[in-house]
Every structure is written in C-alpha cells, then in structure tokens.
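pasting for the record
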Amino acid sequence: MADRLSAREAIALLSDDFDRLPVAEGAYAPDGPLSWQGYDASRARATERTGEDESVVCGRARIDGTPAVLIAFEFGFLGGSLGERTGDRLEAAYTYARAHRLPVVSLVATGGSRMQEGMLALTQLQRVARQSALTRAAGLPQLAVLRDPTTGGGWATLGAGADVVLALPGVQVGFAGSRVRPPDADPAAYTAQAQLAAGAIDAVVRPQELRETVGLWLALLTAPSAQPAPPPPALGTSDRLPDTGWSAVQRARSPERPRAQAYLDAYFTRRAAIRGDRCGGTDDGMLCGFGFSSGSGSGSSSGSDSDSDERGGRVIAYAAQTGTATRPAGYRTATRLIRLADRLGIPVLTLVDTPGAANDAEAERQGVGAAIAELFGAVATARTPLTTLLIGEGGSGGALALAAPGNTWATPDSYFSVIAPELAAAILKRPPEEAPGTADQLRVRPQDLVALGVVRGIVSGGAATSPPPPG
C-alpha cells in the first residue's frame, strides 16, 4: 500500500503558493439530512484528527509557474467521502475556475459517497459531473492525480473524467473499494499499474517528480494557437525521389528509414505523452501527446507572441504511427488526442506510417472498424488546424484515417496506396512477381500523390517544404 498523504501534504508536493478559496455553506440539520445517529460526532472527530472541516480542500495555486484551481481530498476525513458540503465546495471551485479561466487539478483520495447522507450524497456525483462538463465546454483542461485510494464515484468523476490522469506509485485505483470487491478478486487489478496497462491512466509519477510533471502538463494544455503546425523536414538520407512505385514501397519498408520516434525527437524540445483509449486498451504503435516545438525542427511560427511558451516553441499536439499495424486502441487514443487538442485550441501534427489497420480476429472483436470511423470523424470535424506528414508506409484506410484533408505532406521515402501492391496483385489474380508492376499502376510514389492531389507537396531535408519536380 502506498503512503497516504494528507490533503495538505499532497498540495505541498505541487505548490508552495496556495490560497484557499472562501467557503460559503449552510448549516447541516442535526446529524445530517438522514438524522444518522452519531454523524455529527464522527465529523467532529474527523476535524480534530485532520484539522480539516470537510473532505476536500479547494484553492488557487501556482504550479511550476502556471496558475490553477487545486482540489485536494483529505482521506482522513471520513475516508475522503463525498457529501453535500463536498459537492458545494467542488461546485464553487469549478465555478471559480471558469470565471478566472484557470485549469483544474484534482488530487483525489476517496472511498466514494458518504453513507451517512444516503442518496443525497450519491447525487453529488451528478453535480460534479455537470461542473466538469461545463468546464470542459469552456475549453479549460482538467488534470487528476490519483492518491491512495481512489475508488467509487470519485474515481468515476474527478479521476477518470479528467483530460490527463496521473497516479502515484502503488495506489489503489478502481470503481470498487477494497471492502466491496468480490472475495476472489485479484487485488493487482485495482492498482495504478493495472489501470496504466489497461489504458485508463496516462502515467505513474513518483512524488518527487509530480510538481515538474503537472507543471509541464499545465503549460502544454494552456497555450492555444491558431497557426497550423509546420510539417517536419524529412530525416532520410536522400531527397531523391523513387523512380518506380516498387522502389517507393521498398524505401518505405526499409528498416533503416527514420521512424516516428526520430521525428518527434527532432520536432519537439519537451513533450508529454497521453496513453490509452480509456476503453481498456493501449497500442504502443500509436504515440500521442503534446509538446513544445523546436525552432530548428519545425520551422518558424507566424503566430503572435501568445502562441509561444517561455520554455521554447509553440505547443503542438501529436499522434504518430510507428510503422506497425495500428490496433483499435491506437485509433481510439488518437481520436482522444485530437478531440482534446480541438477543445483546447491546440494545433495537431500527425505522422502516418502503417502497413494498415490490424485485421486479426482480436482486432475485429475490439471494434477496429468503429475505432477507425471515430478517428475519421474526429479529423473531419476538428476546428483546430491539422497537419500530416507521411513518413513511411501509407497502407489504405488504416493510414488515411490519420491524414489531414488538404494539408498532408510526404517525405521522399514514403508511399500511399489504396491497398498493398502484393494484395492488389492477389485480388487481380496476378502472380506474385507482378506486384512491382502493380505498384507502378497504383501510382503510389510521393510525386504521384502530389500529381493526384492527395498530398500538398514533398518535404526535403531542409526546414522548408518543397514541391516535387514535374513527372
């Protein structure tokens, strides 16, 4: 079991500059709304033990330079449970955040709703959900840091409902608390590490790294920009274009060809990753997150000063395929990334590189078609500018789903095709040796894609993009 920090200790991990928000709330009836015998005495003992008069402490803080509304649960106060007064304070904190255009950071440690207040306590989850939705609609980011334990309605609202979810090592995380789980339940399933593996949280962060990590996330998620992300320069060894369709395919499939990780390293000075589709899955073949663009790696911005951060370039979101067949969880994670960036007004860069969508039986059971459809929809309806660079294989709809309509570029060592040449030859009942000729017929070369109007241009190894030669 992880060490259980008090609310004040958790706040101190993030900020030395915390001002508690004023509290305005009415008096309880004796022993609460249910006249639960001994409830007032339990509250008095909790206050004496913790120094707090309710299970949450809400205030304004500056976290590594970025102001935010900070919500910290006190587990020592009746198990961090949510009651009517908890709901009052949470609603007031969210209202303050929207009025002052501040992000919300929740340090969650709760056992769920307060039994001594019955259904009135449970309905506080609806209040919290509404406040979270209003804050989301206002374009303000929400972060959650999961402490021990994070269970019940607190996990299902403030925790899992946040845009970015971090957890301290070893903490309990799950909808079911330890006393209400099935007796044969595997305790390892109710941990931060298990939730990370299942795609429900983004990272497990050590306490000594929490301030820097949350500060980085706040800086990344509070820097909107109307300017599109410039496509990265090509990282391949040659700007020479392929002579044939088959040579384009071979170059894109070469193990020596630069992959997404190299492009992201060159494009960003600092970045932070989101992980998981929030539906139980992850895909290491889809890298998603936000980062500060490097001046040398991404060209200069023509935006205003507000488009940049003092740490170094503009903030740009990214979703990048790594050359593997993309799993349903990968598409859903990319959809999550694009929708979050769209809501926060942050431009998106996508890197296309996949032989296609995963087509095994498990992928079908996991809803690969629906996952691709969701990504197509997110790209089609995004209001924030999207930029795409084709850096390797562009295999059919599994690649196209990540491509920005009208703003897709290609490197010299890439190709895009309606279907792999070998599969096209097989469908046409041609022998395998005719696959190279079929590739030529499909016109998959970067220069062919420009001529067809599928991509805008071909990037060179320089900082600027350059149109291809004719032919």
